[in-house]
Amino acid sequence: MLEGLSKGLADRVAERWTRVVILPAALFWLGGGLVWFLGSGRDVEAAVQAVTKQVSTWMVAAFLVVVLLSGLLARRLVDPVLGLLTGRWPRSFDFLARPAARRWSRKTAAREARWQVLAGQARGWSEDRELAVLDTWLRGMPADPARCLPTRLGNVLAAAERWPTEKYGLEASHCWSRLWLVIPEEARKELIGARERLDGQLTAWMWGVAFLVWTPWAWWAAPVGVLAAVVAYAGAVRYAGALGDLQESAFDLYRGALYTHLRWPLPEDAEAERAAGRLLTAYLWRGSHDRIPLRPE
Predict the structure, then answer these.
(1) Residues 87, 149: contact at Cβ < 8 Å?
(2) For residue 255, which phi and psi values (nearest 5 degrees)?
């Protein structure tokens, strides 16, 4: 689950919250002031002079408080917005989620079939290029088309969640918080930075949508807000892919440390690793009554 993949990251993002919290909120309110000036029909120079004369210390302080509080509210909404944009909606919205998920499933199955055709034949330059594009796209989708979610962002994160299971039998939702504690500090910093960039795009999407509230004062606020939201969503998909790659890499490189710290027997070979990973996942989730020999301390 997304919550399991992100555990250990979200709280640490707050260490660098200035860029994510204050700057977008300040731009939103300053942009709203600009919309109001330009849409009110007033002479801009005269309006600026009037505001400048009336500005006082308490007005500046009030503005900063508004910026801070609205920024903190937006930060609190990052996880709900992530759930919204990934298509993990309440069951009452299944009438929307299921058709969208089926469209992604059909698209994934069709591209997988095309990939199989290209991979099994002699290829020229254009076919090699098409195969590479398909391979990259399919890596960002669940291996099982039936597991597709309603949105591209949701599918990218769902694919990242499933790869450790497909490769090693380790359920990311159960193992990630333990793995986080044994990976090196430098790897944690890379993961924190990737999550921070994703959160920045989600915050930008929220402010882009919120910018639509200025439309009654200026018609062009609507296209600006929509454009900002579209660009931010595309950025979120890109950064989600980067975060997923890093999380998968953490399993690739440090899963052995997870086995070692849990005193769990290491799999003898790659063929046995999936079964071993499933046993370890079950052990972490519910414990075990099996007589599995643990490694010495």
Answers:
(1) yes
(2) -65, -30
Q: Is the pLDDT of residue 11 over 60?
A: no
Picking from 143, 148, 184, the residue whose alpha carbon sits closest to that of residue 167 is 143
Give the length of the chain.
Answer: 297
**For the chain, what are the domain ranges?**
2-88+149-286
Dihedral sign of CA atoms 118, 123, 127, 132 in order: positive
- Give CA–CA dist 192/74, Å, rounded: 19
Residues of the chain with pLDDT > 90, as a percent, come to 37
Closest CA to 196 of 246, 155, 161: 246
Question: pLDDT band at residue 180, thresholds of 50, 70 and 90?
Answer: very high
Q: Return the structure tokens found at 265.
A: 């027997």
CA distances from 55 to 38, 50, 51, 63, 269 (A): 19, 9, 6, 11, 71
Q: Answer whether 0.85 is exceeded by the pTM.
A: no
